[in-house]
Amino acid sequence: MTRSTRLSLVIVGVMGVLALGAPRTAGAKWYLLASANPNNIVVIDTETDTVVKDIALEGKGPAMNIATNPAHPQYAYVVNDLARSVAMVDLDEGKQVTSFPLTSGNELVRTMAIDVNAQGTHLFIHEMPVKQEIGKYEAQENRIRVIDLKTNTTVRTFAAPRQVMALASSRDGKRLYAFSVGQDITVFDIEQGKLIDTIPLVNRNITGIARTDGLPAFNLYQEYDHVLSFGTVTVDAFSEKMLLGIASLDLKQTDPQLKVTELQPFTAENYVLTGALAPKTGKAYFSYNGLWRVDPKTRKVEKSVQLPNTMFAPFMHPEGTKLYCGNNWHEIFVYDPESLALQKRIPLGHTQSGSGGGIRFVKR
Amino acid sequence: MKHLKAANQKAEAVEQAQAKQPTTQQAVQEDVVGMAMPGGCTTVFNPGWEANMWGGTSGMCSPMEADLLSCANMCWWPAQVPDSLQSSPEWAKACSGSNQEDWKNFEVIFPKVN
User: Fold this and answer.
1) pTM of the model
2) How far apart (Å, rounded) are the C-alpha atoms in residues A97 and B66?
3) What is B40-49+59-114's CATH number?
4) Which domain holds residue A43?
5) Nearest residue, CB atoms, A310 vs list B33, B62, B84
6) Domain extents for chain B?
7) Which residue of chain B has the CA closest to A84?
8) What pLDDT, in 10s, does the model give residues B26-61?
9) CB distance B35–A312 less than 8 Å?
10) Residue A11 lies in a domain
11) What is the ipTM of this complex?
12) Contact B98/A329, CB-based, under 8 Å?
């Protein structure tokens, strides 16, 4: 072997080591994950807005909530099996790796909310157990199951509120936020499995406001630097009229403050399930039968268009370049966030299952 | 004055359950609560599938297929839409929802009579 050949081999070796050691996100791009009937995860390249994988999961569907793993973006977790299991999916291999069944014995357990922390170490599953007895069902206390993703085993469970439709972790991985229908936001210490705080939402103590409702059913937040947002409806204590608004919670903060801005009357004509703040511009987007953008600072509707059909929620691309509408149709619509012009319709091949968390973005 | 009389066992059970309701504010803290903002499901006690929360039809899902599987999969409307989680898990299996013709492939579901 000549000296120059040895030198070449050393250079190639060093390059190989550097390549293996490089962060996975270097040169990575964003993909959109969509859960769909009957039991599929559709992977869309957001540069071309084309389907690059359609992964059929094992067992029964429908595929519903998706939790991405920010630390190990090769993997995603999907609620399926009639909401009784969470499937672990390898997005590179395009197949299901394993599954976490929730039901055992005569205890029927379903879930509507899952989350993986930013460190990728734990999967959280909100569980709604029902004891099945002859001729009756008995509702059990709800709980949150914590699964260690190194060993894929349960490390603890702790009591949780009912009707939880979304979970979200703080960026430091120490706290878990649970969002329930018609309740305040509850905060848990993950290590201790204890309720440590409650953030008033329904019971905001503000004169003139009877109650405020809303939850991040389509909770993209890790994609948006851990700023979580959702649509709200505030009931005026005097007139009983309802106002549509937008709420946000910065989960990078140790003690985040819930910010709620009332924007416009909530009427049949602008009915929505929720809304979201664009991470780059701070503008609020809402969709259902229409799609519109509001500036929370001025409370002015800046742009509004009709949708070809109902789309449950708007999902801003994490880089703010495109706005996707979907979660309940066999297509995802791509809009320009500024002009709200329809740019593309992405056929999925199946209708989306319409659950919460049915669309997520992952950078890989 | 009582205007309604229970006509079957289920209605009697409802009456009995109501009679057992505690009266103090603390005791009536409910396990399951609703929202002022309708999210579209039984868990939030919305008005029916056929009408919006204002009693009209304006602003409802369009077409209704855009909400059909969502309501079934999450068991939002078990009276109006087959309950895909418990009673009729296979009813939508043959329908991908990719085109209008495909919506005909739903199984026909009849309510079970006890």
Assistant:
1) 0.87
2) 31
3) 4.10.940.10
4) 27-363
5) B62
6) 40-49+59-114
7) B85
8) 444 456 777 766 554 444 444 456 677 777 778 888
9) no
10) no
11) 0.78
12) no
